[in-house]
Amino acid sequence: MTEHVYTDTLSQAKHWSFVLRRNTRLGLTNVSGDANVGMLFYNPTNLLERYCAPDTLKCQHTFKLTTGHCLYSDMGRIFCSIVADTAGWHDTVGGNTTKAHVAAKWGASDYQHDRNEWRRNGHDCFLIEAAKYGLGRRDLAANVNWFSKVSAAVDGSLHFDRPSQNPGARVELRFEMDTLVLMHTCPHPLDPSPTYPQSSISFEILSGPAASPDDFYRQSSAENARGFENNRIFHAGCC
Amino acid sequence: MIRQSNLRVEHAIYRQVVGAGDYWMHTLQTGETLRILDLEGNQAADTLFFNGDDPTERYSVADTVREQGNIYLTAGSCLLSNACRPMLTITADTVGRHDTLGGACAAESNTVRYALEKKSMHSCRDSFLLAVAENEHFGLTKRDITHNINFFMNVPVTPSGCLTFEDGLSAPGKYVEMLAEMNLIVLISNCPQLNNPCNAYNPTPIEVLIWSKEN
């Protein structure tokens, strides 16, 4: 059974970060349906170990992220498993908006005029959260964009599907090791919305049991079984 | 897109064969052209680019594929930095498609992909890490070793969201060529992977050539 620890909201274009302990869960709910949540992961005891989108994709032969997938570090370990998902497809190749993107697509915005409603960009939000832990732009890499679907056609062309088709979508992550989480709620850079999306998310932190030996995610593929074994060795103090 | 080069090999100012499992780290000046030649076919050249004047600016997979609206790299692709600035433009390509989603092999990811016992096998990330350690004057560390290009690799994505590793489109003598749009540090790991059927479990040498901007 899981136990509720904490619930909060993050309105559009905001950023936050926290360390989630092993076996805690993070639930994200896309309240209005048009939110995007950018997210990056690091090992708080060795910040050089960080989320690796290419390893996550190639180890699971997938381009999308959904239930049953694990998010890998660049050290062969699993930061978290996606244990619930009603959206069905999350992106990890689209990256972030920049200040120039936002100005070109939705018009420039500054604090002097817009105060805390200003149209911020994902790149700057990550820089701010990363700096709290001594990290900078050298430490940023391809992030997850929860609730945004980016697919590729046979010719490789990218297509963005509006997430607003799924209001109330929820995704839940179970952390398989202590993890520093950086997040922002800026729009996806491929979002074609004519106006800057005004959307918020709610997030909840839950405590719960560890993955059992016959855990579905541990057994979802031979690759993920080996990833869980790498975590077990790590927690046993062997490396 | 297949596009032949007009450059003549005898006019190159630099030529170097890079053995399988070795790295090649070299600067490239604005306006110079770099060619990577697949000598024996279906080899993977794992490549990173850094701004030579500020190495915190580097090649970005996400910015490159998003801004060109396509996951494959070929002639006409502009390789963007993490500041969304053009680093290089691919000017010729006789292969037609190169991967930039699959990343580099590493000891640790080999344990997940193949077997825990594979961790001591040579990998691209080991080459990258040795390169930055042996070339301290560039000021790079593991922080700077991120998502790369896999020249000559064929990693199709299906419309339903699967990632597959297919036999390469490359062959002996095929090449990709790119023009430097800024001063660069180029770091190539000529992939040593012995577990991948894409190279018939037999990694082979590549050749790198450079032409000055006068050509």
Explain what you see.
Chain A has 239 residues and is α+β, with helices and mostly antiparallel strands. Chain A contains 5 helices and 13 strands. Chain A has helices at residues 53-59, 99-106, 111-114, 122-131, 222-235, and strands at 3-10, 15-20, 24-30, 37-43, 46-50, 70-72, 78-85, 144-146, 149-152, 158-161, 169-175, 179-184, 201-207. In chain A, strand 6 and strand 7 form a beta hairpin. In chain A, 49% of the residues are buried. The model of chain A has no long low-confidence stretch (mean pLDDT 95). The mean pLDDT of chain B is 96. The longest helix of chain B has 11 residues, at 124-134. Chain B has a 6-stranded antiparallel sheet. Chain B has helices at 61-68, 107-113, 124-134; strands spanning 14-18, 23-28, 33-38, 45-51, 78-80, 86-93, 149-151, 174-180, 184-190, 206-211. With 215 residues, chain B is α+β, with helices and mostly antiparallel strands. Chain B starts with 13 loop residues before the first strand and ends with a strand. The relative contact order of chain B is 0.34. At the A-B interface, helix 1 and helix 5 of A face helix 1 and helix 2 of B.
- Count of β-strands of chain B: 10
As residue ranges, the low-confidence spans of chain A are: none
Radius of gyration over C-alpha positions of chain B, nearest whole angstrom: 16 Å
In which order are the strands of the major sheet of chain A placed? 1-13-3-11-7-6
Low-pLDDT stretches of chain B are: none
Strand portion of chain B: 25-35%
**Number of H- or I-type helical stretches of chain A:** 5
Helix content of chain A: 10-25%
